[in-house]
Give the backbone structure.
Amino acid sequence: MKLVVVGADAAGMSAASQARKRRGPDELEIVAFERGHFTSYSACGIPYWIGGAVKDRDALIARTPAEFAQAGIDVHLRHEVTAIDLDRREVVARDLTGGGERREGFDELVYAAGAVPVTPEWARVDAAGVFGVQTLDDGTAIMEWLSSAERRKAVVIGGGYIGVEMAEAMVRRGLDVTLVEKSAQPMSTVDPDMGRRVRDAICGLGIEVRTDTHVTGLETADGRVRAVVTDDGTLPADIVVLGLGVRPNTALAAEAGLPLGPTGGLRTDLRMRVVGPDGPVPGVWAAGDCVQTVHRISGRPLHAPLGTHANKQGRVAGINLGGGYATFPGVIGTAVTKVCELEVARTGLTEKEADQAGFAFVTSTVESTSRAGYYPGASEMTIKLIAERRTGMLLGAQIVGREEAAKRIDSLAIAIWNRMTVEEMTALDLSYAPPFSPVWDPVLIAARKATDEVHASR
Ligand SMILES: Cc1cc2nc3c(=O)[nH]c(=O)nc-3n(C[C@H](O)[C@H](O)[C@H](O)COP(=O)(O)OP(=O)(O)OC[C@H]3O[C@@H](n4cnc5c(N)ncnc54)[C@H](O)[C@@H]3O)c2cc1C
């Protein structure tokens, strides 16, 4: 039996490793193709490497091809899979170092090609200094550009979490940074009232934030980007970072005849088998940023390109194709990020998402502190809860605060996952001591206020 893996990062190599755990090299040959220079790297760590918090690029690499080889997993770096033939059960891979093409037969295939940055027409210029951030190769290219000459002005386009993390990275490298966002505030993954808090905080960090601003083009000269043109003026730039979101990298899979879901991602069943028009496609698995999943609260299909899901989905695919049994049950939209000292977290549904799903709901927002007010280092945080009218089921939560605020989202995520009501949450036995929280933890204060709102809605 032979397994071929397309894409050798989080999802692909989790699948390969789990399959190897269950089936030894005599039983299963494993061959992985990766078009980049690295395997099993943390794309999530790229902004922290660029910003200097992580000193060494290699620290972002969890396992090298040599380590995989020891486990009997054969990785071909700089090999791009250019075609998949499901009838002949083979892939074609091009050696990007100029070594021609090879054909590799397979019995089982894991498609884990990740996502690609959204790149509008105006960004497809033939000039140096314009970067998407998706792979460690992208991060390396940015580092080389920043090191090759004095760069002073950075423009980050897109105020999602990758945009704000990259804006912070550029500030830490001493650049003047402008963040351009077409909406009224950055971080559109939280509600506008919470996004406003993020915007106000970011503005205080030395990042110029231009909201309600549309980019219309890039100015270039001598093969280099020079400025970003917007409907509100021109912004000089030595480096432009695109943070406009990502889409599933599924062109190759679609060419092979695998149908895509409404989000553009591959559809899978709970075991991560790719689903075609007639049900699961035999021996074809997919995981990570290239698949669509389901939101457990709204019931809607969703593209949720996060490392936490990619690792879990890859693991599930690998267990199943190795002869075990595991399922990926969907997501609830939990995510966390920081920009300088500001932490932002969310889980469940935002107001807009709850509305689109058809829920009637109430919201409540509370201000509290991370520690007892008298204890040194206490900092403010805002928690917003969204609960279903009448039943009081917690539908969503968002947190904006300083140190130790964001990880409180995890207890709220557990409550949503287990369909708790805000009233049930008010009695939760959460820990307390002055260095860790006020006597009423901010989560409990938020649950109490939301309970009042739910009662008022009955
Ligand atoms: C800057 C940044 C910060 C992030 N921060 C977080 C975070 O804090 N938390 C979080 O949960 N997630 C975060 N993510 C998202 C997370 O990194 C991704 O969800 C995760 O890497 C997806 O894993 P994957 O294996 O599906 O895809 P990828 O990591 O994209 O790997 C896919 C691999 O496939 C290769 N490939 C593609 N096409 C081919 C082909 N035809 N042939 C051969 N190889 C191919 C690519 O080169 C790539 O290495 C971040 C991402 C970025 C870019």
About this structure: The chain has a mean pLDDT of 96.
